[in-house]
Amino acid sequence: QAVLDTGLSAEILNQPVTTPFRRPDLLRESSRPVYVITRQQMREQGARTVQEALRYLPGILSDGTAGTQLGALSSQFMRGARTAQVLVLLDGRPLNDLGFFGGFDLSQITTDVVERIEVSPGGGSTLYGSDAVGGVINIVTVEPQPETETVVEAAVGSYGLNEQGIQSRGQGQDLGWVLSYRRLQSNNDFPFTIRRLGKSGRRENSAVEYHNLQAKLTWQLAEDQVLTANALYLNKTFRVPGSIDFPSLDAEQTTNDLLLDLRWLWTQETGSLQARLFLDDLNYRFSAPQSQGSRDLILRDSWGSQLQYAWQAGENLEGVLGADYRSISARNTTFSLARGSTNTNYD
User: Global pTM?
Assistant: First the structure.
C-alpha cells in the first residue's frame, strides 16, 4: 500500500474514472482493466482526433479498413469484437447509432474538447447492455475550471496540415462555461509506391476539413445540486480518393452532427442521484456526381434519457439502480443523378 501511494503509481491509480462503475470513482478501485488517455497524453502524442488517440492502446484497432490519414473513417475493433459491439459514450451517454454500421465515427471528434478518454476492453454488458459486448469507450469532455482561461492555438505541418482554435473556460459564482471552436484542414497529399503493381504517384482527392464547436454551461443550483448543458457540433468534409485503378476524383463525404445533453446531479453524503436528457441529429452525405452519378444520404435522429441512483449501502457494499431509454430513427436514401430516380434503402 505504501508503494502504491507514492510517485507515478499513485498518479496513475488515483485518476478519476466513471466507466467501470457508472459513477465517479478512482482507477485503483476498479476490478477490471481500464485504460485512461489524458489530455496531456493526447497533446504529447500529437493526436488531433479521438481516433488517433486510441492508436497506441493494445487490443484496439481504431483505423479499421478505411485508411489511416487524418479524417479517415474510424472503426472500433476491440479484442475481436466488431464496431457494433463496442459501445461509444459521450460523458456517459451512448453515441452508437443503427444507421451507421452500429458504431460512431471517432475521427469526427477533435481532441480539443476532450478531457480524457476511458477505455474498458472486454464485456461490459452488465452495466451497459448488449452494445458493450466488446468493450466501452467513454469520451469525457472538458469542464469549467475555477480560473478563467482563454487559449488560442494555430499550427501548420506536412501534407498541407493547418489548424486554428480558440477555447475559453472559467467559473463564476454559480455559473461555469466552456466555449470552443476548432478548424482543422489537411490535404493528405502524401506520395505512395506499390512495387507489386509497379505504380507510384501522389495521393489525390483525400483532403479533409473540420469545423467543430462546443458550448458547455454549468449552474450550481444549490450546494449539492448541479445542472449541466452541453452542445457539441461536429462538421467534417472528407474527400474520398478511391482505389489506384479506379480513382474517384470527385467523391466527397460530409457529416454534420449536433449532440445535445442536459444533466442534473444531486450529490448526497451516502450517494448521488442523476437525471439526463439527450438529443442527437446526425447527417451523413456521400456524393460522387461524375464518377458514380449518385448521392447518398443517411439521416438519423436519436433521443434518450437516463435516471440513476448510486448509494453506499454499507462499508463494503455499494448499489447502483437506474434505467436507460433511447429511441433511434434512421433513413438511407440514394439519388441517381443519371436516371433522375430516388431509392429508399432502409427506413
Answer: 0.90
